[in-house]
Amino acid sequence: MLIAQTKLGERKLASACFKKEKEQYFCPSCQKEVLLKKGSVKRAHFAHRHLTTCAAFSEGETVEHLAGKFLLAEWTKNGELEAYLPELKQRPDVRWGQIAFEFQCSPLPLERFLERTMNYQKHDYVPWWLLGQALLPKGAFSQLVKACCFYHSKDGIQFWGMDVKSEAILLYHQIAWHFAYPVYYEIQRFDLCKYSVREVLATPVLAKKRVLPWQISHFKQVLTKKLYYQNPTILKLQTKIYELGGHLLYLPEWCYRNSRYFFFFEEELLYLRYAYCQTESFVAWKEIVNPFVKSWSYPFIPLEKILTEVYAECASLQKIIFF
């Protein structure tokens, strides 16, 4: 932690304290004593004197994390560094009004991420998660990266990262899934010395509209291969489609067309599309697909919104085929 309290309750920044002062410092959350750590490698910080379970602070912060949250505090200017929120029993790295900045540099269990995020939302805070270098995707997206994603009907799927060395935050956007490649995306940089928080939020997404080739015949070849090698996910998908009277490889041609919604469901989007063919209303369709999408782990993206758009896309694609 970068901030601790004195016996009188005064908040002190570690970099402004000196060991020779022999002052006692205490954790703002659990009120247990912490020690001032000042060395040549890590930024000056405080650490609990004894190993303890603290509701808001965890030990072993990396150099990247300590530097990153200090950068965020400077960037927001009047943001509060390590602002402990007693009603939430949480401590965002920086609180700027009702925005809670969280710079995540190490793996975090999905359940814990969802708990913290929903707790912020329940108390009318907007959590702004930024991922550090170790968590930024280098291929397929982890569950944590997916959970950090948000969505705009116009600009698509996005999430935020931060590069501490170059002092920039990164907007990952134009995110899409492809049956033959890892998830792909574009990155838009915002140097913290050039952009304010408000300017970042107001800057339009600069999309290059990169398109990877999507051939239905190639997609079906990939599906055929996965069926042949008994891929568990694909076998389960085939079983569900068979229960509706279809076969994974012989759906209406439009079902295999490219879509941004493959990111959320991957091949299982085929089931949602085929279910559309078997129903006559949105309500009836939802009754079929709801059990299939019950494990929704995108706290920033309403499932109802995505289902509504998927249904509308099905209607549009089917109409193109028939007319």
- Compute the number of helices: 10
Global geometry: elongated
Approximate helicity band:
25-40%
Cα-to-Cα separation, first versus last residue: 63 Å
- Element order, helices and strands? EEEEEHEEEHEHEEEEHHHHHHH
Q: How many individual β-strands?
A: 13
Q: Tally the structural domains.
A: 3
Beta-strand portion reads: 15-25%
Radius of gyration: 24 Å
* Mean pLDDT across all amino acids: 88
Q: Characterize the largest beta sheet: strand count, sense, and whether it forms a barrel.
A: 8 strands, mixed
Structural class: alpha+beta
Low-confidence stretches: none
InterPro entries: CoiA-like_N, CoiA_nuc, Competence-induced_CoiA
Domain Competence protein CoiA-like N-terminal: 19-56
Domain Competence protein CoiA nuclease-like: 61-202
Protein name: Competence protein CoiA
Commentary on this structure:
With 323 residues, the protein is α+β, with helices and mostly antiparallel strands. The chain folds into 3 domains: 1-61, no CATH class; 62-212, no CATH class; 216-322, no CATH class. It is 32% helix and 21% strand. It contains 10 helices and 13 strands. The strands form 3 sheets. Strands 6, 7, 8, 9, 10, 11, 12 and 13 form an 8-stranded mixed β-sheet that branches. A 3-stranded antiparallel β-sheet has the order 3-4-5, with no helix packed on it. The mean pLDDT is 88. Residues 19-56 form the Competence protein CoiA-like N-terminal domain. InterPro entries: CoiA-like_N, CoiA_nuc, Competence-induced_CoiA.
